[in-house]
Amino acid sequence: MNMSTQEQYLEDLLLEEEVKNQNEIVLYNDEVNTFDHVINTLMRTCDHTPEQAEQCSLIVHYKGKCTVKTGDYDDLKPRCTLMLEAGLSAEIV
């Protein structure tokens, strides 16, 4: 293995480890909240654009759940708490 191949291999390993350490907020479908409420909450809590929030709300509606934010646990925890306080069904996985 030459040096550049070894360096690339190590970079790939580091990237893979970083991805594994990421957590996700998963939003679940419910029969209570309106699309507008879900969209507005996603824009406020996850910094989604209106288009992203609408797409996530449709995925949740038709598939039952959707990953709405990925990142470090410390960043996701307050976001998930705000979502729960807004009446949405979500968890960090």
From TrEMBL:
Cross-referenced InterPro entries, in alphabetical order?
A: ClpS_core, Ribosomal_bL12_C/ClpS-like
Q: Where is the Adaptor protein ClpS core domain?
A: 21-85
Biological-process GO terms, alphabetical: protein catabolic process; proteolysis
Task: Report keywords, A-Z.
Answer: Hydrolase, Protease
Is Transferase there in the keyword field? no
GO molecular-function annotation terms? peptidase activity
Specify whether Lyase is a keyword of the entry.
no
Q: Please report the name of this protein according to its UniProt entry.
A: ATP-dependent Clp protease adaptor protein ClpS
* Provenance organism: Neptunitalea chrysea
Provide the gene name from the record: clpS
